[in-house]
Amino acid sequence: MNKKYPILYFLIFALLTAGFYLIFSCQKQEADKIIMLQPEIKISNYQKITVNPLYNLSKKQIIFDINIESFQNKYLLDTDITQVSLLVDEENTPYHPVAWEEVSKKTYSRQGNLIFNTQRVIKKIKLSLFDVKTVIFEWETLKK
What are the DSSP E strand ranges found in 13-93? Predict the structure, then answer.
């Protein structure tokens, strides 16, 4: 009897088993539904503030990419962003940020991601940044 055939049968069996395992164990994951909103730029109190929102509908999370540039006063950039920001939806429900992820901080500029979690899908958002003056950014996330 030839000993090569049992090894060949074993290898074929192992490959088939591994193939079935990979096919049936991997569940198809749904891709996140993401809405990219138009960036807004405002100038207030010697600061240029650029806000670029990204709304992840699947995770019910809104991330604002914020870039702050100071024209004259570098000390205006030392504010804790999570303490001076508030998100409000179309029903005036307030949301406080869950995190500020600093991307870069230089003498006269600062960039990072301000992250908010929401309990539901919201149609309109208003981001307020309170410092010396209040700066308000507004977007419509879902068209009626």
Answer: 34-36, 40-44, 47-56, 61-70, 85-89
